[in-house]
Hints:
alpha+beta; Enolase-like, domain 1; 14 helices; 12 strands; 31% helix; 20% strand; globular; binds flavin-adenine dinucleotide; binds iron/sulfur cluster
Amino acid sequence: MHPFTLERPRDVAATLALRAQAGRNDAPAEYIAGGTDMIQLLQEYVRRPDRLVSLVGLLDNRIESGPQGLTIGAAATMADVASHPAVVQQYPVIAESLLESASPQVRNQATMAGNLMQRPRCPYFRDVGYDACNRRTPGSGCSAMIGVNRWHAVLGTSRSCIAAHASDVAVALVALDAAVELQGLGGRRTLPLDDFYRLPGDTPHIATVLQPGELITAIRVPASAAARRSHYLKVRDRASFEFALVSAAVALDMDGARIRQARVALGGVGTKPWRVPQVEKALVGGSLDSAVLRRAAVLAAQGARGSGHNDFKIELMQRVIVRAIQTVGARA
Ligand SMILES: Cc1cc2nc3c(=O)[nH]c(=O)nc-3n(C[C@H](O)[C@H](O)[C@H](O)COP(=O)(O)OP(=O)(O)OC[C@H]3O[C@@H](n4cnc5c(N)ncnc54)[C@H](O)[C@@H]3O)c2cc1C
Ligand code: SF4
């Protein structure tokens, strides 16, 4: 592990000032929250900051639900959010996506903001024995394109990077039109989570629109009828402790047997959580009949491109959408 100094600022203002100062001194600094991803990256020399700035005890961890929606403090743990009664009853897709993530031990320690900021699980990114990784070392190439790419993305890829976004709950949150609250030295701002993530393009090492030092302070999810009837379906190589090959977050507002409104986002297939508005549009007014759902789900493949080992995801994601909608449609 590269040696680092651990900073424990007393409040958010001091935290932001510390990061700004670190930037000016050209001494790389990074935040650490629950540490479940960061510690692995440090141990493997993937990240080598000179300073680590601990967020422990600084950010809100409250989970509040009201008529307008849900507010989740950045420091809330995955476990606390997954078991919160309002989340379970009114936003089941969020609770399910969290319970399908990682392990109880990790969920007890990991924060929601850390989850949204976790790095991809591309094995070439996480193994410094491979020199070529544009995300780790800009301009070095991409080992996955000529290597084993079974876990990689088929949507939103570029000639620089094909890594799939790893967070499950981000997929659920994007489906529900969630927003993130950010705080930097320049003040606060709120952004739709969908706009928070960047496509890799030619700069895959810049994964979000966060400004240097800017913090996620909260997640906001608007209340809706669709959120109450929602579901997360995750397909993976083993039943626990495993990332998604393909997942779907779906939320339906039904008018009798007809779909009044649908929201669908995909995980495991995109370089960011992948909303499929063309599928949502095709579902509106339709029934839950398999053939109808299948015709809509096919549209998810628009623009999809496999890299060889992951070609199967293009068909699988269509099936996952159909099954997820049928599951949620069968719920009262
Ligand atoms: C074995 C294992 C299995 C896993 N399986 C899954 C899975 O199936 N699905 C899934 O979604 N995840 C999975 N994860 C990932 C896990 O959910 C993340 O490691 C965790 O959520 C990260 O949260 P943390 O608080 O520990 O973040 P940390 O490790 O402390 O930080 C992660 C990143 O977030 C940044 N950060 C943290 N807080 C903030 C903030 N407030 N503002 C800005 N940046 C911030 C840090 O600088 C760092 O870059 C798994 C992890 C492990 C170890
Ligand atoms: S897919 Fe992205 S993260 Fe993986 S090796 Fe290529 S550039 Fe690196």
